[in-house]
């Protein structure tokens, strides 16, 4: 049976702030645990961040592996880490949601497009930052992410 | 201003990696680079968040508009990106 791309247990809430390397590792480990990727993929995620930041603006970072590590992806999957105090991504950028991505096909793009639309409104960034349940995060993205 | 139409050839659409490659290649240029969908919605080609919000899929046509001092070099770089399918 095909796995869900975002499983409820893969939304971690109210995490204490930590260096971005650790946040990326946490997201990567969660992708490994759910068998979306092999452990080597985490190296690819770290490399990506060194080459070019995965902070995309408006409080969101989307760590993922560089192309060379694509073969380490077993299935498409996402994990969401919520840091109400934020994680410092450098250059004055703070991420409140760190979204680990293992993209093999295109199943996850709809959700990412919705997320990108959702966070264009700063109020929604604040709502996501302080949401109390994973369900709340998902329903904000589903309701607000309409073009 | 320079303007050119391109078709997204990537099998899985204009997903994360192609979008990030575009941001990476366009950021050094001074010119303003906009990617527009057929319905008129546009995004800054130097913003990953913006490009992601377009939700471009394979086979879709986009218009790229570039204006600024180095617009010709930026357009040449953009043509190269589409030609080699963003390195996919």
Your description of this structure?
The complex is a heterodimer of chains A (147) and B (88). Chain A is α/β, with parallel strands linked by helices. Chain A has a domain at 8-105: Mannitol-specific EII, Chain A (3-Layer(aba) Sandwich). Chain A contains 5 helices and 5 strands, in the order βααββββααα. Chain A has a 5-stranded mixed beta sheet with strand order 1-4-5-3-2. The longest helix of chain A has 14 residues, at 20-33. Chain A is globular. Chain B is an alpha+beta fold. Chain B has a single domain, classed as Histidine-containing Protein, Chain: A, CATH 3.30.1340.10. Chain B is built from 3 helices and 4 strands, in the order E-H-E-E-H-E-H. Chain B has helices at residues 16-26, 48-54, 71-83, and strands at residues 2-7, 32-37, 42-44, 61-67. A 4-stranded antiparallel beta sheet of chain B has the order 1-4-2-3. In chain B, strand 2 (32-37) and strand 3 (42-44) form a beta hairpin. The longest helix of chain B has 13 residues, at 71-83. The chains are: A alpha/beta (147), B alpha+beta (88). The interface between A and B is medium-sized, with 23 and 20 residues.
Which structural class is indicated by helix and strand composition of chain B? Answer: alpha+beta
What is the annotated CATH architecture of the domain at 8-105 in chain A?
Answer: 3-Layer(aba) Sandwich
* Structural class based on helices, strands and sheet pairing of chain A: alpha/beta
Radius of gyration of chain B from the CA trace?
11 Å
- Counting structural domains of chain B, the number is 1
Would you state the CATH class of the domain at 8-105 in chain A? Alpha Beta
CATH topology of the domain at 8-105 in chain A: Mannitol-specific EII, Chain A
Low-confidence region ranges of chain A: none
| Number of helices, where a helix is a run of at least 4 consecutive DSSP H or I residues of chain B | 3
Give the proportion of residues in helices of chain B.
25-40%
Mean pLDDT of chain A: 93
Largest sheet of chain B: 4 strands, antiparallel
- The count of strands of chain A amounts to 5
